[in-house]
């Protein structure tokens, strides 16, 4: 039973690590165009204040 739990924990940790790495790669590949919507929201808020 413990061996099965250990294998499951190792598999889950590997999956979490893979998702973490893929997320970091995606964030590094974003350009300014990807943030244009957020930039527009900030500009509108500045004009309203």
Explain what you see.
- With 49 residues, this protein is mainly α.
- The chain has one domain.
- 82% of the residues lie in helices and 0% in strands.
- The chain contains two helices and no strands.
Descriptive terms for the model:
single chain; 49 residues; mainly alpha; elongated
Number of helices: 2
* Shape label: elongated
Question: Taking Cα atoms only, what radius of gyration do you get, to the nearest Å?
Answer: 20 Å
Main sheet attributes: strand count, strand direction, barrel closure: none
The secondary structure category is mainly alpha
Give the tally of β-strands: 0
Separation of termini? 62 Å
* Count of distinct structural domains: 1
Strand content: under 5%
Average of the residue pLDDT scores: 84
Helix content: over 70%
Which regions are unreliable across 5 or more consecutive residues at pLDDT < 50? none
Order of helices and strands: HH
What topology emerges from the helices and strands here?
Layout: H1 2-28, H2 36-48
Kindly summarize this structure in a few lines.
By secondary structure, the protein is an all-alpha fold.
């Amino acid at each position: 039973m413990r061996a099965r739990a250990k294998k499951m924990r190792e598999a889950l940790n590997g999956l979490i690590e893979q998702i973490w790495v893929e997320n970091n790669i995606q964030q590094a590949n974003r350009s300014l165009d990807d943030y244009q919507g957020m930039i527009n929201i900030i500009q509108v808020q500045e004009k309203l204040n």
